[in-house]
Amino acid sequence: MTTALLVLTLASTLAVGAWLGAWFDRLAPLLYGGRAAGPLAPLRAGAAALLRPRIETEAPDRMNARLAPGWYLALAAAGLSVVPFAPGAALIETPVGIVVWGSCEALTIVAVFLHGWSPNAPFPLIGAYRYAAIGLPVMLPSMFVLIAAALPAESLSFTAIVESQREVWNIVRQPLGLPLFLIVGLTLTLRGPMDFADAADIAGGTSAEDSGPGRALWQGARLAMLVSFSAVAATTFLGGPLGPALPGPVWLWIKTAAIMALTVAVGHGVARTTPSRMLTILWVVLLPLSFVHLLVSGVLAL
Amino acid sequence: MSWLARLAAGAPAPVYPVIGEGAQPRVERLFASAALERAQSPRAAALLLVSGNIPEAHREALDRVHDQVPRPRLGLHWEGDDGIEERLLDAWRTLCAGATGDADRLPDEPPNPWEGEGDFGQGGEGMMGGVPYGRPMAMTGEDVRDGLELDRYTARVGPFAPMLPPGLVLEVTLQGDVIVACDVLSPPYPQPEDADDPALCAARMLRLLGLPGPADRLIRGGAAHAIGARRAIPRGLGRLENAGDARMRFADALRGRNGGAADGIFDTLIGLEWSEAALALASVTPSALRQAALEVA
């Protein structure tokens, strides 16, 4: 019974969260004096994509073209499955939740690469290779940040990490963690300054040849990954389901929505530099910075 | 009409613009102010908006872009008259209601015959190179950075590629993401003086930097509030004599100043990544870029 309830909660969190993320994207023009769209706009856009036909390029990798959006969505769901909706109530209660989430992050690179590989077209392939080049060094700061959050909890379990924040949230004792993890989230969800897979200079990159239900599913999976990333960030840095008065799941949803809004705002307002410069920034600045963050967090946790 | 079609009809019309001679500023302003979705590729569109004169030499390219828009599709011509937004929305609603739209303009077959040479009938050597069906395949060549033998891929981009100025056709040879050879096959179309408007020039660069919101705001007459836009452009990119680099030209455009001549801009592309090259080309005014292209084409 509890498992069925958690499955339902996970599915509805992903679905409602994806709609909310899509709406946030359509509210973002307000930041720039533009017109915002109403809450029905994401549903209309989804219907428009579903109504269009699927186009097949010449000699595509059909199997991976169909599987890539499914993998992306499955990874978002798998990542969310280890996040506790209430203290001790994750769908998959594992002592190695961080490792499971880290695996989902790494496999996202594979899913995005396959999405760019499968149409057998130049711009999608360039987007795929760019993403692989950028995604790999992003995984290292991610692991350092998550391990740093695990140190006060003395466990790799998200449930233990939540418990370790009863007195003080990790965002207070590890202030660098969330900004660094936000870069990971922008990469996983192909957004703004980290969207090297689907950039404008390659006509939408891995999505350049997408149309119809395939495009709708890919965009839906991107939004689902935004929900999962935000839930993991809310759990790791904002105490997850901990909070006064309201039930645990409600607190997690509120915090997840806040991280989603932040990720969307950063995605719409921060410039994307060129891939080679970003690689330099990742290896020369962010990687050492995340290591220092881990070192300081470790010393403080002693 | 099904409930799905009714829902879809309320979505912004997905439009891929094909910009011809003299139409660049009006098309850019249309998409900055209207409730339309500018599709990043023809595959993402349902409507094809053709604006301005398309030279005879590029009619086949136009037909190819037309056929890349998934069916059902509709093509519309626009010469600057009022009411284009309503026409596009009407066309979108018509498609959602089940209209069959435009037929293909070109036969669904390769543009060139099969070249039956090489071990696998593709031309070239072994399993690489050649131009099967007129499509150039990657072939190993010396890497410009370290001398290793890496795949070189040659392709023509333009005249209606969204990241390049309208009309510009480049034949580029890429090693990975790096341009190792670049020829100008066709210069950008002539555009009115208005296309050199600093706000439009800066907005083109903002779009390439992943900032369509600030770009639209700039075109509407507001300020481009974005974090790190200037610093995201590599220092020294597309440096020209007497015209500074792309970062400087972008900063000048934000201050309302136009750049100067773009002589030699195409020479600076060799060794750049594709994204850097697109930024460098967008950093000069359309009139200056056309002049530079005419000199090398």
Task: Provide tags for this entry.
heterodimer; A: 302 residues; 0% strand; globular; B: 297 residues; Rossmann fold; four-stranded parallel beta sheet; four-stranded antiparallel beta sheet
Low-confidence stretches of chain A: none
What is the CA-atom radius of gyration of chain B, in angstroms? 21 Å
- Please identify the structural class of chain B as seen in this structure: alpha/beta
Reported for the largest beta sheet of chain A, the result is: none
Helix content of chain B: 25-40%
**What is the number of helices of chain A?**
11
Please state the structural category of chain A: mainly alpha
The strand order across the widest sheet of chain B is 2-1-3-4
Would you count the extended β strands of chain A for me? Answer: 0
Radius of gyration of chain A: 19 Å
Tally of helical runs of chain B: 9
What is the element string of chain A, with H for helices and E for strands?
Answer: HHHHHHHHHHH
Overall geometric form of chain A: globular
Mean pLDDT of chain A: 93
What quaternary form is this? heterodimer
Contiguous runs where pLDDT drops below 50 for at least 5 residues of chain B: none
Shape of chain B: globular
Distance between the ends of chain A: 41 Å
How many beta-strand segments of chain B?
8
**How large is the share of residues in beta strands of chain A?**
under 5%
Family (chain A): Belongs to the complex I subunit 1 family.
Transmembrane segments (chain A): 71-92, 98-117, 129-151, 223-244, 250-271, 278-301
GO molecular function (chain A): NADH dehydrogenase activity
Subcellular location (chain A): Cell membrane; Membrane
